[in-house]
């Protein structure tokens, strides 16, 4: 008996099969690009997603696929797929790094229970209604990415157009509880019928169609869990279950998640969302982590990540060079879509190693700014679980521990969000219950203990000062663009 987790990420699709004890037995992935037809746009066509799914599935062992009896979904949050009544996408999906709607945030005046960013479904759909009216008129469903994919695999059957609270609450169109905010949707002039009904993340949201089963090498009729957003799935897959449990994920973006028994009070720059099990979590969400480091690696000409790590950590940290990683604006804690990045303090004696090292430090400092906002809200964290493909190198883990001033415990689970999705599939198939999840927590190993580092603290202070000095310039530059 096996359970398949599908994680529809921003830059790749990942598949993991787990056994009856929640242990991963097979894994495959397929990358794809986020395209930008115009400055500030971030899109991917849904055909690319489906092709990546078929490609990744073909590399899973046939005997493992034959044993799959439940499927669950994890998906990148905030973005939206406008779709026809039969689930056919009417345009490319608009994704969370997108900033085209940054001038349309006036419909969400502060204070809000959750910060609103331009790449959330609410602002993006407001832009769609004003700028692509024919597509808006043809839209029947405004789906979150993982919900589109599940409906596609179900053959758009009745009951497959559904979403869960963990995804809905992050659209800027719902209450923190995940229930759709009908008054807000009406005020925005958006059709209420666009938004799928809610179900629990572990409930069945359709069964695998014969066509999709043939394409994936699976059996038809497998129940598919509704699924959850990638962050709550990563929390589930990493074993977070009790209030105060915390997780740092580093992928394309970065998230610091702290579990809560009840909804925490609103705090500027922080998110209060629903978990995959119906509990709550507080989150700082930084969008410039892997996306910024990947850009820098390309600019500096490092042929591989091992080369980039070696070059960066062989170099002595510069006392004068700082890197602001905000290449696509930033969410927590600044909530500033106009923020931009770059190096400051470069001299003729600096090398690409110096620049790469400054980039790693800049990303670590950006994560620290988000963590400081959580600490200021009353949560004192000194240890976190660590997950995500961008946190494997031990030198990078140590830098993160030193910059964040926390112990980092690496989860013995290389694909936490995918595992969380598979567990939801197992619940939908009737193998597990929500009450069983504590026993499924993976082992975590101490990966890094923070070490006193006065020079790093000085560079952190300089980084925060540079950001604050640059805020006015970001606004002026945006005005002249």
TrEMBL record:
UniProt keyword list: Kinase, Transferase
Residues in Carbohydrate kinase FGGY C-terminal domain copies: 249-429
Signal peptide range in chain numbering: none
Any one Gene Ontology molecular-function term assigned to this protein's record: kinase activity
CDD domains in the cross-refs: ASKHA_NBD_FGGY_EcXK-like (cd07808)
Superkingdom per UniProt: Bacteria
One GO-annotated biological process of the protein: carbohydrate metabolic process
Protein's UniProt keywords contain Kinase: yes
Entry similarity comment: Belongs to the FGGY kinase family.
Protein name according to UniProt: Xylulokinase
């Amino acid at each position: 008996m096996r359970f398949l987790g599908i994680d529809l990420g921003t830059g790749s699709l990942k598949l993991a099969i787990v056994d009856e004890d929640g242990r991963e037995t097979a894994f495959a992935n397929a990358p794809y690009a986020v395209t930008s037809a115009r400055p500030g746009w971030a899109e991917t066509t849904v055909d690319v997603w489906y092709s990546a799914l078929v490609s990744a599935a073909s590399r899973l062992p046939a005997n493992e696929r034959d044993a799959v009896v439940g499927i669950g979904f994890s998906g990148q949050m905030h973005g939206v797929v406008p779709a026809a009544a039969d689930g056919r996408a009417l345009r490319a999906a608009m994704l969370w790094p997108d900033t085209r709607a940054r001038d349309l945030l006036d419909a969400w005046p502060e204070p809000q229970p959750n910060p609103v960013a331009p790449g959330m479904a609410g602002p993006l759909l407001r832009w769609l209604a004003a700028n692509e009216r024919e597509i808006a008129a043809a839209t029947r469903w405004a789906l979150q990415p993982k919900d589109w994919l599940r409906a596609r695999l179900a053959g758009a059957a009745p009951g497959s157009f559904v979403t869960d609270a963990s995804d809905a609450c992050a659209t800027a169109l719902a209450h923190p509880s995940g229930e759709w905010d009908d008054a807000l949707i009406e005020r925005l002039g958006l059709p209420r019928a666009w938004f799928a009904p809610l179900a629990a993340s572990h409930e069945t949201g359709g069964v695998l169609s014969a066509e999709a089963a043939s394409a994936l090498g699976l059996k038809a009729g497998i129940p598919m869990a509704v699924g959850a957003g990638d962050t709550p799935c990563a929390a589930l897959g990493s074993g977070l279950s009790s209030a105060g449990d915390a997780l740092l994920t580093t992928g394309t973006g970065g998230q610091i998640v702290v579990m809560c028994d009840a909804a925490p009070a609103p705090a500027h720059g922080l998110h209060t969302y629903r978990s995959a099990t119906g509990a709550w979590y507080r989150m700082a969400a930084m969008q410039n982590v892997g996306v910024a480091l990947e850009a820098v690696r390309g600019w500096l000409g490092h042929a591989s990540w091992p080369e980039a790590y070696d070059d960066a950590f062989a170099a002595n940290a510069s006392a004068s060079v700082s890197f602001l990683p905000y290449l696509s604006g930033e969410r927590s804690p600044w909530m500033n879509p106009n923020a931009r990045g770059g190096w400051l303090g470069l001299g003729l004696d600096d090398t690409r190693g110096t620049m790469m090292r400054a980039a790693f430090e800049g990303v670590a400092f950006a994560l620290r700014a988000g963590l400081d906002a959580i600490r200021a809200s009353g949560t004192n964290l000194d240890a976190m679980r660590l997950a995500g493909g961008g946190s494997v190198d031990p030198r990078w883990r140590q830098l993160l521990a030193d910059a964040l001033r926390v112990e980092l415990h690496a989860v013995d689970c290389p694909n936490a969000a995918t595992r969380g999705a598979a567990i939801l599939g197992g619940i939908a198939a009737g193998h597990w219950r929500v009450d069983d999840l504590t026993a499924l927590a993976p082992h975590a190993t101490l990966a890094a203990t923070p070490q006193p580092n006065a020079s790093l603290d000085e560079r952190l202070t300089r980084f925060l000062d540079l950001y604050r000095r640059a805020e006015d310039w970001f606004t002026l530059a945006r005005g002249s663009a």
